Amino acid sequence: MHRRTMLKGLGAVASLPLLGSAAHAEDTVKIGLILPMTGQSASTGKQIDAAVKLFMAQNGDSVAGKKVQVILKDDTGVADVTKRLAQELIVNDKVAVLAGFGLTPLALAVAPLATQAKVPEIVMAAATTIITQKSPYIVRTSCTLPQTTVPLADWAAKNGIKTVVTLVSDYGPGIDAAKAFKGRFTKAGGKITGELTAPLRNPEFAPFLQKVRDLKPDALFLFVPSGQGAALMKQVAERELTKAGIKVIATGDVTDDDQLPDMGDSVLGMVTTHFYSAAHPSPENKAFVAAFEKANPKMRPNFMAVGGYDGMHLIYEALKKTGGKTDGTALVDAMKGASWTSVRGPVKIDPATREIIQTVYVRKVEKVDGQLYNIEFDKIPDVVPPSPDGN
Amino acid sequence: MSLPEPAADAARLLGRRARIRPAEWLFWALAFAALFLLPERHLILNSIAVQALFALSYDLVLGFAGIVSLGHAAFFGVGAYAAGLMTKFVTGDPLLGLAAAGLAGGVVGFASSFLLLRGSDLTRLMVSLGVALILAEIANKAAWLTGGTDGFSGMAVGPVLGRYAFDIFGHVAFAYSLCVLFVLFVLARIVVHSPFGLSVTALHHNPLRARAVGVPVNRRLVAMYTFAAIYAGIAGGLLAQTTQFVSLDVLDFNRSADVLLMLVIGGTGYLYGGMIGAALFVLAQDQLASLTPQYWHFWIGLALVVLTLVGRERFAKRLGAFARLLPGAR
User: Fold this and answer.
1) DSSP alpha helices (H): ranges in B60-170?
2) Contact B151 A79 (CB under 8 A)
3) What 3-state DSSP class applies to B282?
4) DSSP category for residue A149
5) Among the partner residues A14, A42, A79, nearest to B247 by beta-carbon distance
6) Do β-strands A345-349 and A356-368 pair in parallel, antiparallel, or remain unpaired?
7) Residue B282 sits in which domain range?
């Protein structure tokens, strides 16, 4: 008797998943959104998920006569889970598009699958250069690290900075950033006097920052992934680098809008380059930030959110162009060359590389209405993702 | 030649313990039935099979040898990378890849087992954790070989037995993993009921007495630990081959912790605990995560707290009839 109850229980558990995939309507376009909603990169997932929801709320859930359904999955930031979820979404849910991908290995794990199943893979976050080369079905709406780093190297060279020490997280994007900065900065006549890498997980920056103080460069270049900026800047403040005459410059990942409000006044005046700031003074962006903050109280949209928002825009536009047809190759072709005015400024999908061409802004942290913001004071329009060495 | 009376008694008792129970037939019949009845779920079933093998391996260490470890992912990860490298640079044959994975896991297991011979449970926890962390850092630093944090890609796994190519639906993957799991399970079952396995169980229950009756405690522990590490390596190899991608999280602490949770759920020391635990854990995680992608950790946590507070034994008593049908259950 007991055994039978247990078996029944097991049977029930096993059959639960079947119910979900039963209904599959022809006039529905399904988008599989795979994000790290828990674990170390949860903030990325939260931002993108909120932006996707906002986009759907603003633009409706139907396009070109089809109903759009987003299926959100949490991959916890673990690559084999991402791969399995993507596979299940393709095979069982018959999704037309896969989107999300918070980290480089997660995007790379799915690349062969996108090619095999001919399903577009919209990378909304991961930023290592190589990603789009791994499948002709990958289109990226965030950025590559050299793309946001190179303008900073130019700015530093032009503003009297002669020597720089680089400190980056020890993983693909970090190495990418350091390499791009070095390539560009040395070409412009500057000198890299130290290249430091901190571990990606549970980093302790103090010894590295002490080393920077000893090396006494004109400036310190920083990159850490979205979500680690606050911890890093706290330690930078404790080491009083600016008092020692060392300028701190970084990619916008460090003064991420998600965390900037809590970083404290020590980051005031810090110069960064990136493709998005919540303070970007365009009417489109003002409306976006207001709507985002209304839908998600106490949360400021960051560049991850914009990557997700524009990713959805791109999918909608592609569906309009194909007249609702969900053939993967047609969708990717429709995305190539697409251009629109994003909340970050004008953007275009490069038809050759499927990367996003966009304006990169030089910004300075300032206080506006008692809150810290990245205020843009210069911009480099139409930055094409450069080669990894920054030239 | 007939045995003296007490020895014959013991042989009968041990024979009874080793007998195959009806529930075991049922368990495997269900598992293989899933091959045909649940074709849409083969992808998740494949990851259950892989986790089940990993949990089986950990059960050999924890449930039979009584070694508490928080670094079992070390062997899993080494196996995954070994299978990946084998596929990329030597041959795409899956079975040879698994052999490489098992060998790699076994070598690391053998080498690190000596660190675990001395010391209490707490020391063993820390040492095993340390070994796994060191290996994870090596894999991270050796990016030229492992791909570092970007992950190891570009594996072209050949067809199983030269005939069955891996498909996007996971059919071949699940059949392959299930067969490997079954074969290795049968082997494990034979081993734990062999004199060797019985002596390991004995020294788990009372190392002093075991030593007194002449069981070479250290050698047995090393052997069992290595044996389990080979299993973990093969599980890692299976994961690498069926996902055709290896990332640093194969060596992650979370993986070691998860496998411990699976055994907490399923129970130790009767070989099926890890496999049942793996199935429940992966299914619960999948279901909860699709219901509430942000907060599923809460529900898993709650379930575990309840399970540990109420005690699995009490649950097991409720399901006593079933539990008694499994071998080695007390």
Assistant:
1) 73-85, 94-113, 121-141, 143-146
2) yes
3) helix
4) H
5) A79
6) antiparallel
7) 20-32+41-324
